[in-house]
Design goal:
77 residues, alpha+beta, three-stranded antiparallel sheet, 2 helices
């Protein structure tokens, strides 16, 4: 397998915390780093995507595969 994210992000908004949306993963998210280590974020993991740069929300909404959201989810995990 090549490094990077191995699948797309599937999540749902489940509420709010501190005025920000909160999301739950519907399927595991898998990432392989440059040293070959695998990180598997389990389905059910809850995150707020707060790692996403808030200065560019419009740009992130326009990205079809949400790479910023995947990186923020990995960071939260």
């Amino acid at each position: 397998m090549s490094q990077g994210f191995q699948n797309s992000l599937k999540m749902e908004e489940i509420g709010e915390a501190h005025g920000n949306p909160v999301y739950r993963l519907l399927e595991p998210l898998v990432y392989i780093d440059s040293q070959g280590r695998t990180f598997k974020i389990p389905a059910g993991f809850i995150c707020d995507l707060d790692s996403m740069p808030q200065r560019i929300p419009l740009i992130s909404l326009l990205l079809s595969d949400r790479p910023i959201h995947r990186a923020a989810t990995l960071h939260d995990y």
